[in-house]
Amino acid sequence: MMTINSPFPKGFLWGGATAANQLEGAYNVGGKGLTVADVLPGGKIRDSLREDPNFDFVMDETKYTYPNHDGIDFYNRYKEDIALFAEMGFKAYRMSIAWTRIFPKGDELEPNEEGLKFYDRVFDELSKHGIEPVVTLSHYEMPLHLITEYGGWRSREVLTFFERYLHAVYNRYKGKVKYWLTFNEINSGIVRPLFGLGFIAKNDDERYQQKFQAFHHQFLASALAVKLGHEIIPDSKVGCMIIYIPTYSYDSNPENVMHTLEVSRLFNNFCGDVHVFGEYPSYMNKYFKDHNIELQMKDGDLDLLKEGTVDFISFSYYMSRTEKKVKTSEEQVSGNVVLGSIKNPFLEASDWKWEIDPLGLRISLNELYDRYHLPLFIVENGLGAYDKVEEDGSIQDDYRIDYLRAHIKAMRDALEDGVDLIGYTSWGCIDLVSAGTGELAKRYGFIYVDKQDDGSGTLERKKKKSFDWYKKVITTNGSDLS
């Protein structure tokens, strides 16, 4: 038995995390418009299309399947699912609002009342069970119309539409939601801009100039979300959300160490620095110069960035990354979400070849807190795996328990290091559609959902072995990890 005197603070926000486009389903119900996620098919083709310059954003249901169109039917079964979250003892539920349920095309003048009512019902149900909603404003579900007609976040007009969306949801839910996150994994746009920035880079101009111009508009939108959040909901806490991947040098060769520093600053630090410090970091000057990037700004832009710095840092953590300046194709990690990483000989990997590094989470927490001195919130962490239903109906996911136990222990160690950590919401607390591959087979949940990639299944919810384990972790506030 692993029982300890828990360092987790009173009121620690234990819970789980999902995203609207991965579990709600009902993709064209209730006035909802299409998102970028809706037109990306399931399976391995989904990942390749995210970088295909010829992708036309048109659905072809004769050729592909689209699992997220149905998701796990949370839209109709949210009461049942929230009751299961409550049974586990969730203190918080990190979720997202589908922007196109509120503004179906993104550029309308008035919000869609039916969409607003749906989230009223969800928030009321969470409140009934004493669960704090942690709401992401934009989670890889940009309105398709804003992509095809405006070019995504490259267009400054999108900032106006996003401000309209902010006013709609802040004013509607100001008595129901305290914790808000702006853009999910905003730094993902560094490597793949489609989900976050709303376009596929087709050439060097789009890869550099237009991408970072889009980032500028999104930074302004995030700052505006903080500023308006504080004005409309005085007790609100508005944070950013980044992927954090601690980056190790392959060896002590100074060339590799310097390369590792440059890679880490661009991916791990750039977006966080702008959100927290309200200005562009000086190390980006050389990057902008080397890539002929000249950001177009308007009067007041830099003032807004300063006025809209975040209250806390939220982040996802799944793996670490090992870097080498010159590498062979054989050295690269196949399946790693960060392209070009080197295989780490000291780490094992998941079924999807994501390297498993619990100590990397402790390193991440220390690096982030040392840099920003703001409260931290882990809003995604978990193990995607193939789960098997046994003949007796049970799901013996000890591998998931082992993974989570090691990562929660790393959190405990980081708290003892002096890190200010306010919450932990395990990713995919109920099985859902994978964002990267559009698969249901890649399961993260404590709750099994009988839905398969071919569309078959009853949608029955079933508790995995990890369900009761996580319930015990929450009940003991992290003191019993056995």
Automatic annotation (TrEMBL):
The keyword Hydrolase applies. Keywords: Glycosidase, Hydrolase. Coiled coil: none annotated. InterPro entries: GH, GH_1_N_CS, Glyco_hydro_1, Glyco_hydro_1_AS. The active site is at residue 380. Belongs to the glycosyl hydrolase 1 family. This is 6-phospho-beta-glucosidase.
